[in-house]
Design a protein that fits this description.
CATH class of the largest domain: Mainly Alpha
CATH topology of the largest domain: Four Helix Bundle (Hemerythrin (Met), subunit A)
CATH architecture of the largest domain: Up-down Bundle
Helix content: 55-70%
Number of domains: 2
Length: about 270
């Protein structure tokens, strides 16, 4: 009997797992009642993070099924839903492509879809940038007076991380958020820290959205890194005036770049 069970166990061990290919940012799906929705969420998340770039071809149905470790029918359902939402475009005989919302001609038509993808409307992003332009330049000026050695060290570390992710053509919105949050913390003003904390979820979504538009604009990415570097330099020099000036210019640059693609009255 034990010999038979041993043979059965050996056969089970030899059963091949579904074909899979590791694709950055995607993880096997843990079976739930609506598997295809889990696939939709992961693909949306990877589009937002820039792993699947605007206009790029998604992995094949077979590759996605292998990576997620689900049936191809579940992948097919997910692709169909993403297509119906307007997030991707399925081209017969070619595959599924990430829709490029940066096309001005199609912007108004896909406005709701773009908002759905990022969970924040572009108008909100612009309004948030207005709020940040009121608060953060003064925050940087105060941080220049009060920042500790640890604060400056942490800002340099985060800036290095931002440079690394940009070199990999990733958005890195979390490092961007950390940089600005550390500056607020460096002021020593707890009201400012709590204000930024209250805006944290909205800020992360906004940073992801503005970063997405800069994915193929290498000059803008380099400019963003340089702007953060100038802010940090001013903080190290305890130059409040320059810190305020550089922070305002940075936020103005982000706003101007975003408005290339989004009309303020959309």
């Amino acid at each position: 009997m034990y010999k038979k069970l041993g043979k059965v166990f050996l056969k089970l061990q030899l059963v091949r797992t579904p074909d899979r290919r590791d694709i950055m940012g995607l993880e096997p799906i843990i079976p739930k009642t609506r598997v295809y929705m889990e696939i939709v969420d992961q693909i949306k998340d990877n589009i937002k993070k820039g792993y699947f770039r605007p206009g790029s071809l998604l992995p094949s149905e077979r590759e996605l099924a292998g990576t997620f470790q689900v049936s191809r029918s579940s992948v097919r359902e997910a692709i169909t839903l993403l297509g119906s939402l307007g997030i991707i475009e399925v081209k017969r005989g070619k595959g599924a492509y990430v829709r490029d919302f940066r096309n001005q001609k199609s912007w108004e038509h896909y406005f709701d879809t773009f908002s759905l993808l990022f969970d924040i409307e572009p108008e909100q992003t612009l309004q948030l940038l207005q709020v940040r332009m009121i608060i953060e330049p003064q925050t940087a000026a105060l941080a220049a007076k009060n920042a500790s050695k640890d604060d400056l060290y942490n800002l340099q570390r985060v800036l290095n991380d931002m440079e690394e992710v940009s070199a990999r053509d990733e958005i890195g919105e979390e490092y961007d958020f950390q940089f600005h949050f550390i500056i607020a913390s460096a002021t020593g003003n707890q009201v400012l820290v709590k204000t930024l904390s209250a805006l944290s979820d909205l800020m992360r979504k906004s940073l992801q959205q503005t970063g997405w538009f800069s994915l193929d604009d290498h000059n803008r990415v380099l400019a963003t890194i340089k702007e953060h570097g100038l802010i940090l330099k001013a903080l190290k020099n305890q130059d409040s005036k320059k810190a305020q000036e550089y922070m305002f210019e940075h936020l103005e640059g982000v706003k101007s770049n975003f408005k290339k693609y989004v009309k303020e009255d959309t």
